[in-house]
Amino acid sequence: MKKTLFKTIFIFIFSFFYIQSQERNLKGLSKMRLKAIINEIENKSDSLLLKNSEFKSLNNELKDSLEKLTKTDSLSLIFMGDIMGHDGQIKSAYDKKTNTYNYDPVFEEVRGLISNFDFAIANLEVTLAGPPFKGYPRFSSPKELAVTCKNSGIDVLVTSNNHTCDRGKKGVIKTLDILDSLNIKHTGSFRDSSEFKKNNLLVLEKNNIKVGLLNYTFSTNGMPIPYPTIVNKIDTISMLEDIKKSKKQNIDKLIVFIHWGPEYQLTPSNNQKKIANFLFKNGVDIIIGAHPHVLQKMEYRDNFDAENGQLIAYSLGNYVSNQRKRYRDGGAMIEILLTKNQEKTKISDSGYHLTWVHKPIINGKEVFKILPCKEYEKNNFKGLDSKSKAAMKLFINDSRKLLKKENQNIQEK
Ligand SMILES: [Zn+2]
After folding, report:
1. Quick check: 18 pLDDT over 90?
2. What confidence tens digit (pLDDT) does each residue in 107-121 have?
3. pLDDT of residue 39
4. Does residue 373 surpass a pLDDT of 80?
5. How much is the pLDDT for 28?
6. Which candidate, 23, 295, 297, 310, has a CA 20 to 30 Å from the CA of 395?
7. C-alpha 322 to ligand 1 mean position (Å)
8. For 294-410, where are the E strands, in sequence order?
9. How many Cβ atoms are within 10 Å of 193's Cβ, its own excluded?
10. What does 219-262 look like in DSSP terms, one character per residue?
11. CA dihedral 408, 274, 335, 409 (to 10 degrees)
């Protein structure tokens, strides 16, 4: 009996250290084999040595090792395009009786979908500079727009775009003050260089996965960036510096949300492609684009190894705006699932959701509503008048035609 005991202990300790030594090279060691070893040990300890605490603790350690090796963490993201604030939207949010603004109806129908994700990220293409509230060309929207974003599950608003400087220094700073007061994370514009240094890379972390987010714009519409604020512009030298610094921050994936491209073009320009290649070549994993006010294609490139997969959405279009022309009255949300196993993080899944902006008249007032297209389609566009139904159908057909033809490995959810 004693001999068997020592023999079993020996096998046990040997298996334990063998597995430990293999931890760094586990690709070759199957989970089945590990499970088989544990089962064998459990059987032996049950029959021979049930009361031996040393065996039990060794077995627990083995179980822990197995769990560590087989455990998969995940983090889910959803991105939206431009949140605009045209005159019609401001007027629609205003309540004459109470002299207050309320944007809640705008996001009502997409709130459920957005809140399914760990992080929802959109581009805020207005300043929250206070009155006079105005749309094009120098946007300032009531802060209630951001309040509704927060209440609708939007966690992050990127703030570098061609309207960031519409209301000068006050506009840049007040926008950030309001986002901070609402606990909405942001990056892209900064009050000064010390804030830039601290917060340029926005790190989002959940479930043992860390992603970094950077944000740039092609232009500030000719408006100077007011000192001492900083607005991130597309510039290969500074972007490269940011990427290099970001890579030292122990992040799993690096994302760039970028404001670029010619307006109303359904195909990305050569310049967009050139910038995308530059970012990918230097280590960016995911690029989310906006500004053209229409959709452009999305691509997932697995690069023969999922860990090095790269994803780009050239333009997500308008999330909400008062642009009503064909192609401009809607946009897409793109969802991305990251998974991490044995310290390797990959893009495991992605897909898009089409959204269309409806402008019904409710109680004699025009209301803006972002509608999830697929859901409405399933319900045969219930509640829409014939003109709205036709416009929404046209947007869906146009968008599917474009994205089915041009997307690479990214389909509608
Ligand atoms: Zn823009």
Report:
1. no
2. 999 999 999 999 999
3. 76
4. yes
5. 47
6. 310
7. 14
8. 295-301, 310-316, 318-320, 330-341, 344-358, 361-362, 365-366, 369-372
9. 12
10. --TT----TT-EEPBP-HHHHHHHHHHHHTT--SEEEEEEE-S-
11. 10
User: Six-digit token pair at 141?
Assistant: 């929207």
CA distances from 279 to 236, 256, 349 (A): 9, 8, 21
Q: Which two tokens stand for residue 366?
A: 């025009």
Ligand 1 center to 88 CA (angstroms): 18
How close is the Cα of 184 to the center of ligand 1, in Å? 21
Cβ neighbours of residue 373 closer than 8 Å, sequence gap 6 or more: 330, 353, 354, 355, 356, 392, 395, 396, 399
- Cα 83 to ligand 1 centre (Å): 10
Distance 135 CA to ligand 1 centre (A): 13
Ligand 1 centroid–CA 317 distance in Å is 10
74 within 8 A of 338, measured Cβ to Cβ:
yes
The helix (run of H) or strand (run of E) holding residue 22 is helix 2-22
108: helix, strand or coil: coil
pLDDT score for 34: 67
| 206 CA → ligand 1 middle, Å | 30
User: What pLDDT, in 10s, does the model give residues 147-206?
Assistant: 999 999 999 999 999 999 999 999 999 999 999 999 999 999 999 999 999 999 999 999
Ligand 1 centre distance from Cα of residue 276 (Å) = 18
How close is the Cα of 250 to the center of ligand 1, in Å?
31
- How far is Cα 385 from Cα 379, in angstroms, rounded to an integer? 14
Distance 148 CA to ligand 1 centre (A): 21
Q: Residue 67's pLDDT is what? A: 77
Please report how many Cα atoms fall inside a 13 Å half-sphere around the Cα of residue 400, on the Cβ side: 10
